[in-house]
Specification:
Largest sheet: 5 strands, mixed
InterPro entries: Cyclase_SnoaL-like, NTF2-like_dom_sf
Number of helices: 5
Mean pLDDT: 95
Structural class: alpha+beta
Radius of gyration: 15 Å
CATH architecture: Roll
Number of domains: 1
Strand content: 25-35%
Shape: globular
Number of strands: 5
Strand order of the largest sheet: 1-5-4-3-2
Distance between the termini: 42 Å
CATH class: Alpha Beta
Low-confidence stretches: none
Pfam families: SnoaL
């Protein structure tokens, strides 16, 4: 696939997660069946993190930030990889990272590196600005 086509895959994935257009089927369809999530595996102390694990993670995330929006600030692509700088905004409405709902607005960033195969995400690595997020929901860090 072309570099622009790969960027479009990531744009569609982010748009599908946005509260205004949330389309879970489109999100799940964004991944290869064997997609891996190394950052989430490391974060949870697990050897691996599968698409099924990601579904559970994302549904919990959408409960915590039901009005979440994802703004793609920048995409950089080379070969089968796309780097994405995303701004996430929403309202903390249910438990998130062990913190009960505060109903406070949040805004923080994510940097992701996505490896694509045949028009789908085959590997997803993302780093979230957890310090900013946690401070906004009242956690001293």
């Amino acid at each position: 696939m072309s570099i622009e086509a790969n960027k479009d895959v990531i744009r569609r994935f982010m748009t599908a997660g946005d509260a205004a257009t949330r389309d879970l089927a489109a999100i799940w369809d964004s991944f290869t069946p064997d997609c891996t999530f190394p950052t989430l595996a490391a974060r949870t102390g697990r050897a691996s993190f599968t698409v099924t694990d990601y579904r559970t993670f994302l549904l919990d995330y959408f409960r915590a930030l039901p009005d979440a929006t994802f703004t793609v600030d920048e995409l950089i692509a080379e070969d089968d990889r796309v780097w994405a700088h995303i701004t996430i905004r929403g309202t903390h409405s249910a438990e998130l990272r062990g913190v009960p709902a505060t109903h406070r607005p949040v805004e923080y960033t994510q940097l992701g590196l996505y490896t694509l195969r045949e028009g789908k995400i085959a590997r997803a690595r993302a780093v979230f600005d957890d310090v900013t997020l946690l401070r906004q929901i009242g956690v001293q860090v």
